[in-house]
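Z., the sequence and structure:
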Amino acid sequence: MNTPFIQSVRWGDVPTWIAALATVVAFAAAGWAAIAAWKVLAVERRRDRAQQAREERAHAERVAAWPSLVTVDPNDASSAEVWGVTMRNAGDMPIYQVRVERVPTVSGGGESHVIFEVVPPGEWLVNRGVMYPRPRTSSAARSHVGPTPPRPYVIEMTFTDVTERTWHRDGRGRLTLQQT
């Protein structure tokens, strides 16, 4: 069985060719693994950024303000009621540089605002620029004599959290991070 083909092949070179082919396949597999790892890293980074944004927003999500009926004299629960503001900081930390604005919803109404340097956790009532703790029996629990007066405004607020991020909650309750 002497064929010219078998005699012309150098069998000593076949293992070298197999090793070279294996090296090329290994480099291709390593390149594919690097691309896959890069894609996984990008997904993890996006997930981490989203988680960080949720954590940064967590305290701000627990802060709100809305129009409410408050007593004219906070020390006299039987005093007349007027439209004021209820602020709630349901977080565990205070908020700072809190600006509460009464934005008119009808023409002719004037915008007004009040600024509080610190609002601790809890629920607070605001009337005529004075902030005081919400009493245990709220004005909503009282029986109203006559119709509720019309409310010609919405409440917007801007505040800074303990991480020094400034947030704005608009009259519809939407929360946005303010660019500084």
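The chain is about 30% helix and 35% strand. Residues 14-61 form the longest helix (48 residues).

Let me know what you think.
H.
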